[in-house]
User: Fold Low-specificity L-threonine aldolase from Bifidobacterium cuniculi.
Amino acid sequence: MLSFENDYSSTACPQIVQRMTQIQDEQYPGYGQDDYCTMAAQKIRKACDDPTCDVWFLVGGTQTNQTVIDSIAPQYTGVVCPDSAHINVHEAGAIEATGHKVLPMPQQDGKIGAAQLDDYCERFTADANHAHMVRPGMVYVSQPTEYGTVYTREELAALAQVAHDHGMPLFIDGARLGYALTSDGNDANLDDIARIADVFTIGGTKVGAMFGEAVVFTRGNTPANFTALVKLHGALLAKGWLLGLQFDTLFTDDLYLKLARRANQEADRIRQALLEKGYDVAFVSQTNQIFITVTTAQAEELQSKVRLGFMEAVDADHVMLRICTSWATTDDQVDQLIALL
Amino acid sequence: MLSFENDYSSTACPQIVQRMTQIQDEQYPGYGQDDYCTMAAQKIRKACDDPTCDVWFLVGGTQTNQTVIDSIAPQYTGVVCPDSAHINVHEAGAIEATGHKVLPMPQQDGKIGAAQLDDYCERFTADANHAHMVRPGMVYVSQPTEYGTVYTREELAALAQVAHDHGMPLFIDGARLGYALTSDGNDANLDDIARIADVFTIGGTKVGAMFGEAVVFTRGNTPANFTALVKLHGALLAKGWLLGLQFDTLFTDDLYLKLARRANQEADRIRQALLEKGYDVAFVSQTNQIFITVTTAQAEELQSKVRLGFMEAVDADHVMLRICTSWATTDDQVDQLIALL
Amino acid sequence: MLSFENDYSSTACPQIVQRMTQIQDEQYPGYGQDDYCTMAAQKIRKACDDPTCDVWFLVGGTQTNQTVIDSIAPQYTGVVCPDSAHINVHEAGAIEATGHKVLPMPQQDGKIGAAQLDDYCERFTADANHAHMVRPGMVYVSQPTEYGTVYTREELAALAQVAHDHGMPLFIDGARLGYALTSDGNDANLDDIARIADVFTIGGTKVGAMFGEAVVFTRGNTPANFTALVKLHGALLAKGWLLGLQFDTLFTDDLYLKLARRANQEADRIRQALLEKGYDVAFVSQTNQIFITVTTAQAEELQSKVRLGFMEAVDADHVMLRICTSWATTDDQVDQLIALL
Amino acid sequence: MLSFENDYSSTACPQIVQRMTQIQDEQYPGYGQDDYCTMAAQKIRKACDDPTCDVWFLVGGTQTNQTVIDSIAPQYTGVVCPDSAHINVHEAGAIEATGHKVLPMPQQDGKIGAAQLDDYCERFTADANHAHMVRPGMVYVSQPTEYGTVYTREELAALAQVAHDHGMPLFIDGARLGYALTSDGNDANLDDIARIADVFTIGGTKVGAMFGEAVVFTRGNTPANFTALVKLHGALLAKGWLLGLQFDTLFTDDLYLKLARRANQEADRIRQALLEKGYDVAFVSQTNQIFITVTTAQAEELQSKVRLGFMEAVDADHVMLRICTSWATTDDQVDQLIALL
Assistant:
């Protein structure tokens, strides 16, 4: 059945699969000590326009968030984030499992704002009982957000400024970063992200790779003994070259951006069709996720013909669905979907 | 300076201090294996009208919540509570430090309701992604609540019913339980609490003891190897008889209730005076805590003469203060306070 | 350079790489809900001769040990194992990071014995202070062991019996299970393992797969809500079909055993050559790992020509090296190595 | 029955009990913000001859070890200690519960040596796989040791030197520190301890107090936000003045040392009698603990008349018992015991 359910339902882009077949007869050192990891890190540093970035490769998103947050946040602190954040809602308590409270703030279109963050921190500091409360210790946002919206460069810079003013690092979860970088009107490019964030990720799983998340620490922010930290979180892949090879491929000839841009363009076509047909489209999103509110009856009919993501029951009669394109979405699939709408 | 800041600013009731002086020449087995603990547990079982209750004695409130919750909640679950709950706001992340997410629900007057809880659980179960979310694993409420309000027996029974329907135990934090048991109009007596809760505490620290919280597991709910669990949470007092002696004293001749009732009566006098003088008194509370909203100027003047608890800034011009009586509050102190109002 | 450093330096067997290239145009449900996972689990159940086995697929070994142990061992318990166990020595504290003490016992040839285990448990139970000690809560052994030796079926059955007598499950870490199953003289076949263990793993990473460990729970031992447990340990792969596809391939036409047997045969050739040339070969191992003790000078010379694993300095003048074959080792590589010895 | 079972079977010295009775009518600020805590800390700083020491008061020993170690040791590290250490054997896994591996080293008479420690660390650093191993992150010893023996000043200084050379702090657990400070031949005085250790404790529970352990951080070693760290470990006593009052008392007129010295003198009398009567006394201990090896029959007879600590079965026919004096032991009790021997 036709599926726009998510952006991780296809194996990997052909370039990656092909290279996997070409390295069968070689032997590599394990745990990321291989040349592919070195080359991929070098290419990412170049794409970030910052030769000092420190790049690591992990397998999955929750694993990466758990490892980074637990390694960066002092143990007596929590991690501030939008209440819609993946770490707050969809990681089964992986952050709390490492002892850190998630400190959710009300989101708007999936985002939190710098003034809002500042107010939160100021109120914490002013509270006479704050030694008995969980101190905000780092800030987590994702780019794009859970709702496919994109922070502007100015918004991210302002968040970083407030975070730093309060002694906190800013972590930008880029599980779908490619889709933000290539969305219409985006002005926060990879080098901006690298200048603004203290640590961020470049997601592979949802943008062309089989699996893999690149973790980029900027300005010397790598935690001491990070290899051991990755290992103790169960996140050190034995055959690390599989990660290096994939990111080396994605960061050759701008493949990462090309794959993401295609997905956005396909989403744009769907979005335009939806609007033309009068659908209720939520959020001002320019990335690969589209959220529509339809009646329960409409939802049932649609879902009988195409696999879509179910978000939530809006009220007794309406539900919100997600239409998600990916680097693997074809023109033909989009034509079929539009015909169904 | 006159102080109504909290209910843990006096050492202990005279009866307890006196008995402490009378046991100096004896030697006791450690870790709660002494006769005082046995006697105190027996008296508590009798007061609960349930000979099957299993009673343990720990030192402090946060420690007790941490130990009980981590021992009762399956590791893949969180603990549902009002968002004003002590475990959510004022325990510095002690619950998350054991790996459990706190799952706050909107409170009203410090309480959550059975229908609200049921709805929360139903929505969790209905969510297609719930295997990626934190499952509600137990329910935590306090009696009285953080705002001094009291659940009715019916409200508690309904919460327990919903909790049990969803496979969760109900934990009632009774750090100030005495003040609830003796408040006007309360209809949830100790034997009701014991019939309703799966585990609850009887707070000593704030109701006459130097320190100590009795943990009562009902209906065979004691976790396996609970001594080891207490020990590994750093909560096993070497000289356990100090806890047994105190609870034995508090549960002799209804001392626990007498001490609490006195504090409530003193609070009632203050509450009446506040209302007569036109103060803005928040919450319908009949226990030993009174919350008033005053102007910043009023607050400053009051606090120059009497130590009060500061709750929060309500708006730019108003703050909420807490007036707290205790078992140690004297008529004279209350007279002085009323004269100041 | 020629390398016998380890058994995870090659990408994957050709059959797996080839199938990876054949599924590029398909879309699959995530998180292990796909048909490949279903088929692979079915084939593993058949190979285990037990239709009730419950099979899960995780990515890496440390991750798997961490997830399984933390999910199976009650929180107040530790995990008993040989002191040479991977979880005790080479997982960077991943087990303790989940709150469980590792309880190492003296090993012989990498093994512990049933009588030794029984004695350990009996002494624990008899200790007057045992409520203050870490209770043995599960037993972990690996098959083959860290030193390449193999437990007999009788030895494993005896360990399981003692474990069960003391209320503990037996976990057999089979990160290299194939090499044990196909070693000369082995009498513990996969169906025996499934009958004896409460949970065991079938390692893919070191036996032909790109990555992946199959976790097999027997006799209804799967922990409640194991999907959430996997997720909160950061171990749930989004594209689960990549794991299913690999294990489906490995368990088709006995490929798993064929790959392992080849590695053992190559190791046998090397072992024979070593013995003929008078090398000091440690442990009576019939699997793919060979441990030799050589002088420091010999070691340096060897390592200038072939990459070998360094185990430890035996004394001031001698070191122990590991020669490790894998499913990818070729006759030609072995010939080259033998010529060097 | 006569008891020499342990040194925490009596409530508290009369001076402390008396002062407890004298503060009933006062109100104090909570959580250690009171004047008694301030005064006690000041007296301890003076006794340490170091005005920069930072002093905190916690309730119990395991709680204190857990809080200090988890606050000081980086999360990717373990704590090195003698294998007989309390944290390794008798804290029910409280250290591992915070995620840190305990790294036991073979002890001699309860001690580890500087050269042994250095060798351990050197071997760790030299190990090619050390990123996969648990890094030694701090050193824990107790003074006196679990066997009542005492480190010399030189031994402690050497341990500290090696620890510092390897980037680790030295933590001295002084749960029974008084008994070491006042033992015959001891040359490590309190000011020496303060000069040598990075953090140490002064035990109250076993040396005259009802309960309480003073934690002393030297040279600015206090962890950031230690109040919150204490709170999140469940170790912050509401009525902190109870701790301050006790330590203020113990550090007035050298009471702490006087109480401990008496216990040592009583132990010396017993030790001498034991040696005269030909008992097999283990360890060269000059503190309040005496370990004797007797036949099972002798043990049974002794234990029918006096409560002693049971240590372990030495062999089929012999057991080791512990005779423990305390600040509360009377001449008469010792006379009775000697008569029984």
Notes: The longest helix of chain D spans residues 255-276. The first strand of chain D starts at residue 2 and ends at 3. The radius of gyration of chain D is 20 Å. Chain D touches chain A at residues 31, 70-71, 74-76, 99, 131-132, 135, 224-225, 227-229, 231-232, 236 (CB under 8 Å).
